[in-house]
């Protein structure tokens, strides 16, 4: 399975040995009663972050295991690299879109405390995976290119991690 996913990512834009993408989406939550300021995002609403799995956008630091775009490309080679990276990592953005369309509460917001929000998002991820396993979900053309039915979602207690 891992070999198929790596090959699928390589076919998108030529990146070798990529096994996932990293991004973040925000899901509105009710104002928490404790540590309220910890949950206010840059847009001014309360949220819980959901992280995906390792190409990242420019909001992430370049590390040994995380490839991000050039902030100021200096030549056509760096511009092509940025273009390829963006075409490849769009899969994670589409995965978040699939979840938010399928489970509208994730799009409009959860009226609950942060710990309970994690439980709700985890349940949505589990239901998504059940649908993928039963083949009763729509298959996007991008997912077909990656040799996966639809992106599988892995959820943990502190963050939600999307594999695809």
Describe the structure.
This protein is mainly alpha-helical. It has one domain. Helices cover 43% and strands 10% of the residues. It has 5 helices and 4 strands, in the order H-E-E-H-H-H-H-E-E. The protein has a two-stranded antiparallel ribbon with strand order 1-2. Strands 3-4 form a two-stranded antiparallel sheet. Strand 3 and strand 4 form a beta hairpin. Helix 1 packs across helix 2. 26% of the residues are buried.
* Proportion of residues in extended strands: 5-15%
- The overall pLDDT average reads 75
Sequence of strands across the biggest β-sheet: 1-2
Q: Over the alpha carbons, how many angstroms does the gyration radius reach? A: 17 Å
Terminal CA distance: 11 Å
Query: What is the H/E string?
Result: HEEHHHHEE
The level of helicity is 40-55%
Number of strands: 4
Number of domains: 1
Q: Which runs of at least 5 residues are low in confidence (pLDDT < 50)?
A: 141-150, 154-164
Sheet having the most strands: 2 strands, antiparallel
Determine the structural class based on helices, strands and strand pairing: mainly alpha
The tally of helices reads 5
